[in-house]
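hiii, so i know i said id send this last week but things got crazy w the move. better late than never?? heres the sequnce for the chain we talked about at the cafe, plus the structure i predicted for it. fair warning i was half asleep when i ran it
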Amino acid sequence: MNAKKAPLTSPSRASRINYAQCWEDADILLDALRISPGDSCLSIASAGDNSFSLLAAGAGHVISIDRNPAQLACVELRRGAYLELNHSEFLELYGSRPSKQRDRLYNRCRPLLSSDCQSFWDHQPDFVRNGIGGVGKFERFFSIFRNRLLPLVHRRSRIEQLLRPRDHDAREIFFKHKWNSWLWRLLFRFYFSRPVMGQLGRYPGSFKHVKGQVSERILERVRHAIVDLEPWKNPYLHWILTGRHGDSLPHALRPENYDLIRENLDSLETVQGSLEKFTFERVNIKFDAFNLSDIFEYVSEKEYEVLLKSLICKANPRARLAYWNMLVPRTHPASLADSLVNHSSESDRLFLRDKAFFYSQFVIEEVKEK
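okay and structure toks below
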């Protein structure tokens, strides 16, 4: 794997894992981007899962980029695990399944890692023992909710009931009469408030451009996940409520995609740095697809416009950009109407299926042919 090396053992904020797994639904991402064999893709790394999903879809070159070297350490360890472990072992190391052998599984992957990556994971053995998909700040935020607050509202048996198959009408009745109690709403509004999420889940700067209530918007999306979607098929909801994935796994972890990813790992490149710097420095490169996660949440409208312009300069005609809005609405400004078309009908249709239910909008933009 072509990777820009960076020190990973610094205790600074930039070297901490913020997201130990990707919290965007790769199923709708791939439908939106319409990857063709050999396509070149630029992907926000996070923990790497959706970059690996692009490989499974047949992308010819995936650049997985992140400012944070610890996030790239997550990507690199996953790459080693895909190469060395079988599928069930991979799920154990990840944390999707219980395991007592994660140290041994990590040691098998370790020789495939760079020295910086080895040092990062060696210095944090509890991260391995607890499952590498559960050790980010965001996952710890859910862990506190799951282990300390949720038991005050719902017994384990009720959580198991929630995750059982039932039709829409039965889900609505269950939500109304069994789940959506006043205590549930009270604790949810407290824990998913702006100050608590800023301190424990994200960071205060995440809400710089957010207007209005935070918890109320997320609370309504939870209802959508429980009633309108099928909870037993939702790996993100399973993890939030149980700390494991259920029988339905995220795209990059599914057995049918495992060998596809393994066989295409040479097409993955990792880059540490900002998108702004990358688009300025990598002059002779164009992309057919962009997985942009929810990066525009954190910038002003002006910064968003400037970044979009820089990405358009790196795009082939008809290249697609996909990204999520959680609390800050972002779609391309009128000044870029000659360069981008917004596929709102398609993105709205896909958004109805989005298993990563806490987002408020999914956006698909396409670069116009000149």
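btw The two ends are 35 Å apart (CA to CA). thought thatd interest u
miss u guys!!
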